[in-house]
Design a protein that fits this description.
single chain; alpha/beta; Isopropylmalate Dehydrogenase; eleven-stranded mixed β-sheet; 14 strands
């Protein structure tokens, strides 16, 4: 502000006002007329309080939770062997948030003992008693097949124990798709959620397996309403090398996407991790594509590299992980003891969005639609 004119008889000042942005460009200009004091004014200096603006923790997970809470009826979910405080409390908190309708499956005495220790009221929840964790997994799968529940959630049992019942050829929940785990990572200071697959189910996936793994992740991404995903197929290098099988798989997957064998996404690979998520790294290596530097989904070569990548993100970058197993007749919510409350709720939200908001997803409908048709009308939700 600059004094443009002084009007003595009226004790007024006319000020020329200019406001510029960070680039020095004028954004507001004008004049202001003020009444000036006739005597000098002195006031004691005021020390302003220190204010620190903190970003909301896990904004992407909160977004998924808010979306799911507005999509319809909670997802009736069998909680498999919730016999410790972490798994039982996580299921109860998700139920209170309106994301799931929890059915507790496992040894009733252990579940009630855990509830007493954690001061959790079990009166709102159905309990289906079994002898042990293995029987709980089998019972939960049977409940899905009988259309009594719409999803499964892992409690205090090993993932292998739960998945053994799920993949049983006669009594399991197989579909035409290969099952795979999809993680949604909420990474501090990273501008978008980053999906990683598969770091939990497929140990050394074949090219055919990777087709299902990619499509499962794409379908889940669409369910979150974030549009067309960019899929980076990871390897150690960004060029095709016959001595590195994952680069050959990446090349084949990209061609399969061009021919419509994988749908709903933009694919590119092989890409190393840096040029998959960093535009600067991609430009430095002269990689020009619609995916490089802007990936939404990372498809890892095998379970070892995926597991290492996820744990690095969690332990070194402070990332929070939510995730579900896709490709079965219903979503399977896999949680870890290290997961926080928000991450657990976000995992339930992803499952709910997948079942209730599948408008654009291209899942193996021959199995999924059959299962949905058997559900009572109140449990179907929107398709």
């Amino acid at each position: 502000m600059t004094v443009k004119e002084k009007i003595k008889d009226k004790h007024r000042l006319r000020l020329e006002c200019i406001c510029v942005n960070q680039d020095g460009k004028e954004v507001i200009t004008g004049e202001a007329e003020i009444i000036a004091p006739t005597e000098k004014v002195r006031r004691k200096r005021i020390r302003l309080p220190e204010i620190e603006f903190k970003e909301q923790k896990c904004p992407h997970h909160h977004r998924a939770i808010c979306m799911a809470q507005g999509i319809g009826q909670p997802l009736k979910t069998a909680i498999v062997h919730p016999a410790d405080g972490v798994s039982l409390r996580g299921a109860v908190e998700a139920a209170k948030a309106g994301l799931i309708e929890a059915v507790l499956v496992g040894p009733e005495d252990k579940i009630r003992k855990t509830a007493r220790e954690e001061n959790i009221d079990l009166s709102p929840y159905e309990i289906v008693s079994t002898l042990h964790s293995h029987a709980a997994a089998e019972m939960a799968v049977q409940m899905v097949r009988e259309c009594k529940v719409e999803a499964l959630m892992k409690g205090k049992l090993h993932t292998d124990e739960l998945m053994h019942a799920v993949v049983d050829k006669e009594k399991g929940l197989r579909t035409e798709r290969r099952m795979s785990h999809v993680s949604m990572m909420d990474i501090p200071k990273f501008p978008r959620p980053l999906f990683v697959t598969d770091a939990a189910i497929n140990i050394n996936p074949t090219l055919t397996d990777k087709v299902s793994i990619a499509q499962n992740a794409i379908d889940l991404f669409h369910a979150t309403g974030m549009g067309m995903p960019r899929v980076a197929i990871l390897s150690a290098v960004e060029t095709v090398n016959a001595d590195i099988p994952s680069t050959l798989d990446a090349t084949a997957l990209c061609k399969m996407a061009e021919r419509g064998q994988i749908t709903g996404a933009l694919l590119d690979g092989p890409l190393a991790f840096d040029n998959a998520i960093s535009e600067e790294a991609a430009l430095a290596k002269n990689i020009r594509s619609q995916v490089a530097g802007r990936a939404d989904i990372l498809l890892v070569p095998d379970i070892e590299s995926g597991n290492i990548l996820l744990k690095q993100m969690v332990l070194l970058s402070g990332a929070e992980m939510a995730g579900v197993v896709m490709g079965a007749q219903v979503p399977i919510i896999l949680t870890s003891r290290a997961d926080g409350d928000v991450a657990r709720k976000a995992s339930c939200a992803l499952a709910l969005l997948m079942v209730r908001g599948r408008k654009n997803a291209k899942i193996a409908d021959s199995d999924m639609e059959c299962h949905q048709e058997k559900l009572p009308k109140a449990a179907k939700g929107r398709r």
